[in-house]
Amino acid sequence: MKKFFVVVLVLALGLIFAGCAQKAATKSEQPMETAQKAAAVEAEKKVEPAAPAKEEPKKVETMAVKEVEAKSAPLAFENIHFDFDKYNIRDDAKPALKSTADWLVKNKSSKMLIEGHCDERGTSEYNLALGERRAKSTRDYLVSSGVTKDRLDMVSYGKEKPLCNEHNEDCWQKNRRAQFTIKGAAK
Amino acid sequence: MRKQNAKIKSLKLKVLIFSFCFSLFTFNSTLSTCDAKIYIDITSPSGKRLPIAVQELSGGEGKNISDIISADLDFTGLFHCLDRASFIETSVHPFNPGNWSMIGAEAVVKGSVNGDQNLSVAISLYDVFESREIFRREYKGEKGSVRLLAHTISNDIYRQITGEAGIFTTRVAFVAEDEGKKGLYIMDWDGSGIKRFGIKGDFVLTPHWSKDGSKLLYSSERGGQWGIYLLEFTKMTEKNIFSSKGLNMTGNFFPDGDEIMLSSSRDETYGLYSLKISDLRLSRITSSRWIDISPAVSPDGKLVAFVSDRGGTPQIYIMSRNGYDVRRLTFEGSYNTSPSWSPAGDKIVFVGMYSGKRQIFIFNTDGSGLAQLTESGNNEDPSFSPDSRHIIFSSDRDGVNGIYIMRTSGESQKRITPSWLRTFSPRWSPN
User: Fold this and answer.
1) Do A32 and B160 touch (CB under 8 A)?
2) Residues of A numbered 78-107 whose beta carbons fall under 8 angstroms of chain B's beta carbons: which are they?
3) Do residues A115 and A157 lie in contact, with contact meaning Cβ atoms separated by under 8 Å?
């Protein structure tokens, strides 16, 4: 009985390994299914230069030209600066902001764009958010100085538009700023 | 009695033999799913590279194609491409396993190229130990698309040997600076074929791919306003899908390809929103007095990782897609941003600032297993390859900002963009 048992065992094991090897051989001889991409590289799979994005058809409008009062205005408004990772208005920024506010109050027809900027340290998106905060505190300060809110637009450029590229505190301080441009007549 | 006992004994034995044979049979059946031989198990950490011989294909573009295939396979770290100078067999001679086992090759790629402008490439992959051809295919393409053709062959070889999809026909969308303006660009995953998209605006942020690889989503500043745009490759059209006052920055797609996450400060508070592209329906997900930005949807669409300074400094948080169960993930350092998920859904890669420098870090999605992957220069905007095996990122370590690739272990860091172009914010295509 024992002998019979052993023989069965040996036979069975032999069958298993033979079967497995056979199955493996058969399976791999069959051609593999197509890979993800079609083997035939067709002309549609463009690798040629990308054509420019289609532009939306534009309407050509007539632009109204408004007469501007001949008042003396500073050609540029002084930038104000911020501490690292902060967006509060510093005391040393207040005189410049006051003079900007005074001009805006006198020139009621003008709209202004306040840009918020950061230095190169930090990552792009967070710096854009920080820059936006700087633009906002600046805007709020001008509003508290008597300028109406709807004349002040804000935009952040984060660290995307530096004034200088050196890697030192001097340059970084220059870049941590709010900048002002006249946008055109307020409606 | 004795006869009965003998009968019972014999019956017991028969049952024993039967059940033993039966279990062997089922064992055999399960074994039969061992199917095709796995030459490389990419999940095993053994680190042994498969010695493969990629012979120069006969015919005009033969060397070019075999060089590309070798570079592709070598890049994965799973293959050791044997030096062609050591080959005994020539391209025109048929496969003889003896010629290859002698130099230690376990797999061999041979083939031929016919045609001048319209190429016809025949490829054969051989198993040296089993002395036979295990794969054969013919490829057709124009000479101008020879790189794509070669990459397609690499994908097939890779799949034959590892059972997994290769990344050799993927592309990378990225941002590059030209004359002070930042535009949207695309290139092959290996840095070749750089092209620019002709879109407007002077600034663009990280592009995000749709799951089918047919669309790109990005934020762009135009005329003092940040808007979110969708570019469709098939039509080469750009659509403005979100615009408002304030800062608008897009996150990535949900798996359905119609909904996206974005951050906006449209009402002067920061919020994370989801937007359905088909009907432009906006839903607010978070509401806070703090900065909540950079939403990153998990591959299964159930979770969103994001950056918030609600704890005082920018850190990475995670929440369910409808804004519940907000949990903080980063606790080391005071500046952690830019989270991005692995397509496998098990890891998050991000940027941490230490000693004033930005470095790439990786951890599990519960915040455990934190590891630092970079050390030199400033490194930003990390994201994964579609097979979750590599990370792509930007770095200023060589002076000029460039795009780099590395394994998820941090090994084999190398630059893929040329030194004459300042490049940022890369994102690997899904296919």
Assistant:
1) yes
2) none
3) yes
- How far apart are the two ends of chain B, measured CA to CA in Å? 76
Domain interval for residue A92: 80-185
Q: For residue A52, is it within any domain?
A: no
CATH of the structural domain B50-162, one choice from 2.60.120.1440, 3.40.50.880, 3.40.190.10, 3.40.50.10070: 3.40.50.10070
CB contact (8 A) between residue B335 and residue A37: no
**Distances A165 to A172, A173, B190, B311 between C-alpha atoms, Å:** 8, 11, 29, 31
Question: Is residue A41 assigned to a domain?
Answer: no
Neighboring chain B residues of A157 at a CB cutoff of 8 Å: 203, 221
Of B199, B203, B293, the CB nearest to A53: B199
Nearest CB to B165; choose among A36, A49, A130: A36
CATH classification for the domain delimited by B171-428, as one of 1.10.510.10, 2.120.10.30, 1.10.10.10, 3.40.50.2300: 2.120.10.30
DSSP letters for B184-207: EEEEETTS-S-EE-----SEE---
CATH 2.120.10.30 domain residues, chain B: 171-428
Phi, psi of B111 (to 5 degrees): 175, -175
How does pLDDT run across B323-371, given as a tens digit for each residue? Answer: 999 999 999 999 999 999 999 999 999 999 999 999 999 999 999 999 9
Cα nearest neighbour of A112 on chain B: B224
Tell whether ipTM is more than 0.90. no
What pLDDT was estimated at residue B360?
98
Which residue in the set B134, B195, B270 is minimally distant from A129, CB to CB? B270
Q: How many domains does chain A have?
A: 1
CATH number for the domain harbouring residue A170:
3.30.1330.60
Phi then psi dihedrals of residue B156, to 5 deg: -65, -45
Within a 10 A sphere around the Cβ of A45, how many other Cβ atoms?
A: 15
In what helix (H) or strand (E) does residue B155 lie, and over which residues does it extend?
A: helix B146-162
- Whether A153 and chain B come into contact, CB under 8 Å, resolves to yes
- Nearest CA of chain B to the CA of A172: how many Å? 13
**Chain A contacts of B387, Cβ < 8 Å?**
none
pLDDT digits (tens, 9 = 90+) for B285-316: 998 889 999 999 999 999 999 999 999 999 99
The pLDDT value recorded for residue B424 is: 97
Q: Is the pLDDT of residue A47 over 80?
A: no
Q: What is the distance, to the nearest Å, from the Cα of residue A184 to the centroid of all Cα atoms in its chain?
A: 26
